[in-house]
Amino acid sequence: MQFVPSPTDRIGRKRLFLTVVFAANFLAFLLHMWVDGTSAFPPGGTLRGDHYAVISHGREILFTPGAYWFSFVHGILFLVVSLVCILWMWHLRRKACSASDATI
Q1: pTM score over 0.90
Q2: Tens-digit pLDDT profile for residues 78-104
Q3: Rounded to 5 degrees, what are φ and ψ at 46?
Q4: Which of the 8 DSSP states describes residue 86?
Q5: Mean pLDDT value across residues 23-33
């Protein structure tokens, strides 16, 4: 039988926190994609005059330089935060499983 930590123990609280952080990060990225229409990361963009053009699904979306760099940095942060949450959750799951095996 597999041990599933509840939110009342330490590992369970950490897993709940990571789930909330991951969900908030994902919703912020979806909102960003909905408002801007795309993300500058990973496709990048080309500077045309005073705007950056990012191609998404066959159309060009223009960004001001500030909005382009915000979009690019937000895309990188989304990726990093998501990977950290996933790897930490995996680590906590292994830790919880090994702790339950030790008590059997």
Answers
A1: no
A2: 999 999 999 999 988 887 777 665 555
A3: -120, 140
A4: H
A5: 93
3-class secondary structure, 38: coil
Under a CB-based contact definition with an 8 Å cutoff, are residues 53 and 45 in contact?
A: yes
Cα separation of 21 and 15, whole Å? Answer: 10
CA atoms within 13 A on the CB side of 19: 9
The type of residue at 2 is Q
Residues in CB range of 81: below 8 A, 6 or more apart:
21, 22, 25
**CA 45 – CA 51 distance, rounded (Å):** 10
For residue 27 the two structure tokens come to: 């919703």
| Contacts for 70 with CB less than 8 Å, ≥ 6 apart | none
